[in-house]
Specification:
With about 500 residues, this protein is α/β, with parallel strands linked by helices. The chain has 20 helices and 16 strands. It has a five-stranded parallel sheet with strand order 3-2-1-4-16, with helices on both faces. Strands 6-14-7-8-9 form a five-stranded parallel sheet. Strands 10, 11, 12 and 13 form a four-stranded antiparallel sheet that branches.
Length: about 500
Amino acid sequence: MGKITGFKEIGRITPARRDANTRVDDWHEIYTDWPDQSSRAQASRCMDCGVPFCNSGCPLGNLIPEWNDLVYHGDWEEAIKRLHATNNFPEFTGRICPAPCEGACTLAINSSAVTIEMIEKAISERAWQEGWIKPEPPETRTGKSVAVVGSGPAGLAAAQQLNRAGHTVTVFERNEHIGGLLALGIPEFKLEKSVVDRRLDQMRAEGVDFRPSTNVGTDVTHDQLLNDFDAICLAGGSTVPRDLPIPGRELNGIHYAMDFLTQQNRRLKGQEFSPEETISASGKNVVIIGGGDTGADCLGTSHRQHASNIVQIEIMPRPPEHRVATNPWPQWPMVFRTSSAHEEGGERDYNVLTKQFVDDGNGNVVRIDCVRIEWVPSTNGGRPEMREVPGSEFSIDADLVLLAMGFLHPQHDGLLDDLQVEYDSRGNVKTDVMLQSNVKKVFACGDMQRGQSLIVHAIASGRTCARAIDLFLMGDSSLPTVRGYARPALALQR
């Protein structure tokens, strides 16, 4: 590395966030610009460790020490080449990935990790500004056609890789906007949609055919897919949400988190909703059930809709401030985190079990009744057991309840059942080591195959699936393996 003492001299600094009191009045990204000298200084902290655990911490196997060194030396153009060698969409992961690479950073053993995610964002933004990211259409076409079902990060990654291998790629999306969760699920303040649109423009110029508002299984039948394409890549999301079937669930004002988030994104795109359709937190007591990223997205969105009061509850215990002995480095640190949405306000509560939703007499939710719980070790050494704490009952006022408890599996009705694909024990599409389902020429990747997960896993899965399909179609492949995600059979073949 160019500055072997960088990590000794320079502490971890991230880009500043805009003032929390003002950013809740708009939907723009929360971070201010990061000067080049700041990102170069942070890149100098990468310590040239003997074994770069960040590579294995990243499911994509990103070449992190290499592009950190290039940034430190000011070679931004080469840095984006090294970044694109493993990651199709660093401008996405540089914004919404939780950065498992930083949890595995060697500095994180006893210090603060390198600001890998923000350096990644800085590289990609510099590359877009300089015009270094251009369409890369294939020189020749193979004559083979591939249908990609779903335009989230997994589907987009698979589509771009397959198109660059020379196949004719058609991406089907049932929503009216291409991008899956990138377009409709992630709030604008975390990922402005112009960032997604410019990448889609690049892919269109490369020859990828996007077909929005096309529900495969209805508008296009499974037989049409099988007859019209040489291979099919199932890259839909894990879209069946986890419900909370307790008394009062049928009351008005109780919604799935994704319905709330997607409606707000559609509204920002100009779509209008009737008063009966509108899900709004404006002036309301909001309760978010679920303590993960989706719950935090609901929190930030509720702030910007100017809710009266917001409480986010979680059934699990509050995470510890620091790693515990059973969660050593380089594992992902299961510690307490504060997101940008939590900085903006709201209350968080843990070890809370919701018992029932209470009616106001007119069919609307007015409060939720809860009880505190404790988690006790299992007598047989299994998972801890949940027990209610006697006398701990309490209530929370609630005009709007958002269920953000995760997702179960992809939608089975329609395309998947029509194709007669097999499911694994969790209800996801079951595949072999080549990511092929039990149905010949039908492959699966992303959340549809893995289950609900991170964007970086989705991109890695999409790239891996693209290589598998290329091998299936051609018997050979020049597409790269995904070092942090490679399946045995895929890694062994050229």
